[in-house]
């Protein structure tokens, strides 16, 4: 027997009426300012929370509706990515997303440690700073057409990659307090197994019985709910199940018509979720200092995100400097899914209740900054590039765009070389893990000075990075020669400078991140006279600044 919750239906209807009505009013006002209506729905919840207090029963219902709306949202995201587009994600959009994630996560965690924020909480804020808004970015692309078609394609595919990463991150959040590396392997294994099984089911069963009408829509939603229930039962987020359902169902013939019927339903529940997030802020009493702290952190996260997108788009986008900056402008929004990240982190007691407040402020601020950058790109891009001559910018841009076109036209050659590169990296990483575990075992079981352990680890890391750099550099030149046999020497020099700077840049961040996570206590013992947070802040902000200066200097010199 199932026990039903007793609730006054008139209170429920009144609450829903107020939520939808105020969402319409605030959403319409926000839309007039050129911002996403999602921000209006969030503000509607915040305003509503100032005047009404929901009962525990109503909060329980809103909690269920929020979970349901998240599942439907990721069902649509998976469908929009489409199974046929997964193969396209392995090129430049993937490079941008991974580099942006690495920079934003490292800088966020380092700077937030300066504010005495714990590791796991800083990790959540790092995730918030790492992803761009799909909805608002789409709107910017419609309102202000990019200078080149490649920019639009890159932005759309980066959004798809980041949505995929968010799905995995949401599942990992639930295991952050346990053994994180085992949890990562578990999530990846479950996702791969579920994807294979779900794909076989959609090909052999679902595609044969589903109809393009209301019954088919009900079956599609049921399919998403079933996979969401499965992932919840195995300890992962229901969003993962919804995402896999969307991706695997995307190949069904004429399924696009089902999604046209599905979107209004998703929009209704997503509105409830955003309003609920705003309402949840009123449950907790925040002090003035908490509001100031949330605002300070949100500003820091937005600035880090903007810097990360600009660097990643310029270095890894294959569009050169000028068009790379424009791509970064489009991606400088903060994802609405940051609210989902904050929501799950609070549910799992990883971050405080103010995380939703911080995420909300970051989304609003990011939207304003991104709109400003895009609508005034003719002013900002020349200002950022005034230190480099027009001839050198054109030279680099032409080279990068030509290289990108050749890479995308000759995917087979590059993909084979890329697989060889991955095998080389895998071999080096395997040896590194074995030696690293050996060093860690010796440090834990033998009475050796911690300084010796750190020194050995540093030597091992430098040796591995140097070996990886030499082997990957050879592969890079092999790719270039296959794509363009008559490439000029001056192009080779520019590529060499940029690639060397990028390797140093990435290896420094990886090293510092490992040090911060694995050797936090050891560093504090070794450096007792200086505040550790100051060391972390300097260590995480100095290398990228020096590398950018060095790279610009060498390019100008060439």
Explain what you see.
The chain has 558 residues and is mainly α. The protein has a single domain, classed as Up-down Bundle (Na+/H+ antiporter like fold). Helix content is 81%, strand content 0%. The chain is built from 22 helices and no strands. It is globular. It starts with 8 loop residues before the first helix and ends with a helix.
Estimated share of beta-strand residues: under 5%
Q: Which word captures the global form?
A: globular
Structural class: mainly alpha
Distinct helical segment count? 22
Number of domains: 1
Task: Characterize the biggest β-sheet.
Answer: none
Poorly predicted regions are 1-6
Number of strands: 0
**Which percent range fits the helix content?**
over 70%
CATH level-1 class: Mainly Alpha
Q: Sketch the topology as an H/E string, one letter per element.
A: HHHHHHHHHHHHHHHHHHHHHH
| Integer average pLDDT | 72
Q: What is the terminal-to-terminal distance?
A: 78 Å
Radius of gyration: 25 Å
Name the CATH architecture: Up-down Bundle
CATH topology tier name: Na+/H+ antiporter like fold
């Amino acid at each position: 027997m199932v026990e039903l919750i007793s609730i006054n239906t008139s209170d429920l209807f009144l609450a829903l009426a107020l939520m939808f009505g105020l969402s319409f009013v605030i959403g319409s006002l926000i839309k007039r300012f050129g911002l996403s209506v999602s921000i209006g729905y969030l503000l509607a919840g915040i305003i509503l929370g100032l005047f009404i207090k929901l009962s525990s029963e109503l909060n329980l219902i809103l909690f269920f509706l929020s979970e349901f709306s998240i599942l439907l949202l990721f069902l649509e995201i998976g469908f929009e990515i489409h199974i046929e587009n997964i193969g396209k994600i392995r090129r430049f959009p993937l490079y941008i997303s991974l580099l942006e994630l690495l920079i934003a996560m490292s800088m966020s965690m380092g700077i937030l440690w300066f504010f005495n924020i714990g590791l796991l909480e800083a990790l959540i804020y790092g995730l918030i700073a790492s992803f761009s808004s799909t909805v608002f970015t789409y709107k910017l692309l419609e309102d202000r057409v990019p200078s080149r078609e490649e920019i639009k394609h890159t932005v759309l595919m980066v959004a798809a990659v980041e949505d995929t990463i968010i799905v995995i991150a949401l599942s990992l959040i639930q295991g952050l307090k346990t053994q994180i590396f085992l949890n990562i392997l578990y999530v990846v294994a479950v996702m791969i197994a579920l994807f294979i099984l779900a794909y076989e089911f959609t090909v052999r069963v679902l595609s044969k019985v589903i109809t393009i009408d209301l019954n088919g829509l009900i079956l599609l939603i049921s399919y998403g709910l079933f996979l969401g229930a499965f992932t919840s039962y195995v300890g992962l987020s229901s969003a993962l199940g919804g995402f896999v359902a969307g991706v695997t169902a995307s190949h069904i013939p004429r399924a696009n018509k089902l999604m046209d019927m599905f979107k209004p339903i998703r929009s209704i529940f997503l509105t409830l979720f955003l309003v609920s997030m705003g309402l949840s802020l009123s449950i907790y009493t925040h002090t003035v200092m908490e509001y100031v702290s949330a605002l300070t952190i949100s500003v820091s996260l937005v600035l880090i995100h903007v810097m990360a997108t600009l660097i990643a788009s310029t270095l890894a986008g294959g569009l050169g400097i000028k068009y790379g900056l424009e791509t970064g402008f489009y991606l400088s929004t903060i994802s609405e899914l940051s609210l989902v990240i904050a929501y799950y982190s609070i549910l799992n007691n990883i971050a405080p209740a103010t995380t939703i407040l911080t995420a909300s402020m970051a989304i609003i601020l990011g939207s304003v900054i991104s709109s400003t950058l895009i609508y005034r790109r003719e002013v900002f891009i020349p200002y950022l590039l005034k230190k480099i001559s027009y001839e050198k910018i054109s030279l680099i841009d032409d080279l990068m765009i030509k290289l990108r076109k050749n890479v995308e036209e000759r995917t087979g050659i590059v993909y084979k070389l890329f697989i060889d590169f991955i095998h080389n990296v895998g071999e080096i990483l395997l040896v590194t893990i074995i030696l690293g575990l050996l060093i860690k075992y010796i440090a834990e079981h033998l009475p050796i000075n911690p300084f010796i352990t750190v020194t050995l680890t540093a030597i091992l890391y430098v040796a591995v990075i140097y070996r990886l750099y030499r082997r990957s550099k050879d592969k890079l030149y092999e790719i270039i020669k296959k794509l363009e046999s008559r490439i000029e020497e001056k192009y080779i020099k520019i590529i060499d400078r940029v690639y060397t700077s990028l390797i140093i840049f990435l290896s420094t961040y990886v090293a510092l991140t490992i040090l911060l996570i694995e050797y936090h206590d050891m560093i504090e013992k070794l450096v007792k006279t200086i505040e550790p947070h100051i060391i972390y802040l300097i260590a995480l902000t100095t290398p990228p600044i020096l590398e950018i200066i060095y790279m610009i200097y060498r390019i100008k010199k060439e």
